[in-house]
Design goal:
The protein has 4 helices and 8 strands, in the order βαβββαββαββα. The protein has a single domain, classed as Cytidine Deaminase, domain 2, CATH 3.40.140. It is of the alpha+beta class and about 160 residues long. Strands 1, 2, 3, 4, 5, 6, 7 and 8 form an 8-stranded mixed sheet that branches. The protein is about 25% helix and about 30% strand. A hairpin with a 5-residue loop joins strand 5 and strand 6. The N terminus is likely disordered.
């Protein structure tokens, strides 16, 4: 999962879910997409399991917005927030990502942006090879492409 990444970039506290952009929103600026992902955060402890401490927001090439949260379980069957958002995107019969961001909230409530893990980078590429052009937000002042984060691809 995305938890524990040393390169997480701190951001301001998130927006309440009542201020989420509408579903067909078009490209978002860094502040808005980060606030949107932050609004999806929903940390939940389920015994020894947890979910929702990492959230992701994806904007597709059609301008539609999808969110997801991570699910951490001890037997490796969980998944990252990006995978949850990608699943929702695929349900809507879309596969091309224009923008993506993931955020994590720690035990003290501090929210940070984190890059997608290697599995998620490869997953986004495997879902649609055009996703290499997707903007990946790494902070308020930092954006790159999936192509730059995934120089060596699995074939």
């Amino acid at each position: 999962m995305n938890e524990g990444t040393a390169s997480a970039a701190p951001v301001a506290a998130g927006a309440p879910s009542s201020v989420l952009p509408p579903p067909n929103t078009g490209p978002l600026d860094a502040e808005t997409i980060i606030a949107t992902a932050t609004a999806y955060l929903n940390p939940e402890k389920m015994g020894t399991r947890k979910s929702g401490q990492v959230a992701a927001a994806i904007v597709t090439d059609r301008g539609d917005l999808f969110g997801g949260v991570c699910i951490d379980v001890p037997c490796s069957m969980g998944y990252c927030a990006e995978a949850g958002a990608i699943g929702a995107m695929l349900v809507a019969k879309q596969s091309q990502i224009a923008q993506v961001v993931a955020v994590i909230v720690d035990e003290s409530g501090i929210v940070s942006v984190l890059p997608p893990c290697g599995r998620c980078r490869e997953f986004m590429y495997q879902v649609n090879d055009k996703n290499l052009a997707a903007q990946v937000f790494l902070g308020l002042d930092s954006v790159t492409t999936l192509d730059e984060l995934l120089p060596a691809r699995w074939n």
